[in-house]
Amino acid sequence: MGIPMLAMVIIWYLGGAMVIEEQLTIGLIITYTATLNLMVPSLIRIIEFASSIPNELTALMRVKELCDLSLIRSEHDSSVNAERHSEQSPSFEAMILADMSFSYHENSPLFSNLDLTFNKGRAHLINGGNGAGKSTLLTILSGELQPLSGHIKLDATDLNGLPNRSQSISMVPQKIHIISDSIRNNVTFGMDVDQDKILKALHHVGLGKWVEHLDQGIDHIIKDARSELSGGQIQKLGLARAILRDTPILLMDEPTNNLDSEAVKRLINIIQAQKQSKIVVIVSHDDRLFDAVDRVVYLENDSFRNATRVTETPSEEG
Fold first, then answer.
1. Which domain range does residue 243 map to?
2. How far is CA 311 from CA 137, 175, 279, in A?
3. What are the tens digits of pLDDT across the range 104-157?
4. Do the domain assignments include residue 80?
5. Could you read off the pLDDT of 251-306 as tens digits, one per residue?
6. Domain-located, residue 180
7. Which helix (H) or strand (E) holds 134?
8. In total, how many domains does the chain have?
9. How far apart are CA 248 and CA 21, in angstroms?
10. What's the Cα-to-Cα distance from 281 to each of 3, 169, 203, 248, rounded to whole Å?
11. What is the pTM of this model?
């Protein structure tokens, strides 16, 4: 109701002034008002649809992961599948961006000839202003967006050359999607995981006591996440999902969303534990994570180069 009423006020305010100056008639104002009444509902629906696109893209990424996992399980029996899992989860030492360029619009590059390396054993934080490309860079690292030029490599292997990216890369997006299913299935997403491991992951993210008080435990069915779960609980389920995936690369986009101070402390402990054997890259503007990481990469708009400029804090090794 707010947008139509505001538009009405503007039309009648400006129109009234123009009627007084004899530049417009009352009849035309009424016509404009009637036309606006017909247009506004459609415009609101278009805006709502456009705003839902990022969430739907994230959901499609999760569906793709489920399809990949289902394909692997159907192709091999349990013994062969266990052996294949160990082969498809190598321990990469570095993720390397070499001369990478990306643009959403022609003649308006977001990244130009970008060179960055993310090493295993360190937590890397990507920080910067709005529109600098933080989430875009993370999506490029996940392989869901393709650069216009340059290469992304895991050691000597090209990212696009991986047989199954979902076996190597886990992504915690800004919007965590919860399906209408059990807690177990929401955090395993089709993987065959021991119950003890599930409970341990839920405990690490701070959901252990909550699950213990549920009659069905991890088999409790979440019918409607929006009405049944808080924003913090949804975020923690997404973190537990990533822990159970246990891939050599862990990407997080604003992981402190909806988390209180105690939950952020748990997240920091998770980051410090995960980085020991993984490449961990985090996008966040939260100052509380700055002291928890080993390196901060700043992205900022550069009007002179018409692209994003990248600067870094001095590394501990440097």
1. 53-91+121-140+166-312
2. 14, 27, 20
3. 887 778 898 899 999 999 999 999 888 888 999 999 999 989 999 999 999 999
4. yes
5. 999 999 999 999 999 999 999 999 999 999 999 999 899 888 999 999 987 654 55
6. yes
7. helix 134-142
8. 1
9. 71
10. 40, 11, 23, 11
11. 0.72
Query: What pLDDT score was predicted for residue 76?
Result: 44
Residue 245 one-letter amino acid: R
Per residue in 75-107, pLDDT tens?
544 444 444 444 445 789 999 999 999 998 877
Q: Is residue 147 part of a domain?
A: no
Which residues share a beta bridge with 250? 170, 280
CA–CA separation, 280 and 249 (whole Å): 6
Number of other CB atoms surrounding residue 34 within 10 Å: 10
Matching residue, tokens 């910067």: 128
Distances (CA, A) of 291 to 123, 124, 287, 300: 10, 11, 8, 21
Q: What is the CATH number of the domain that holds 84?
A: 3.40.50.300
| Distance (Å) of CA 7 to CA 23, 34, 239, 288 | 20, 12, 43, 42
Per the CB < 8 A criterion, the answer to whether 202 and 233 are in contact is no
- Give the CA-trace dihedral at 14, 20, 24, 26, to 10 degrees: 90
Taking the CA atoms of 68, 71, 77 and 83 in sequence, report the sign of the dihedral they define: negative
Evaluate whether residue 61 is within a structural domain.
Answer: yes
Place of tokens 């491991």: 197
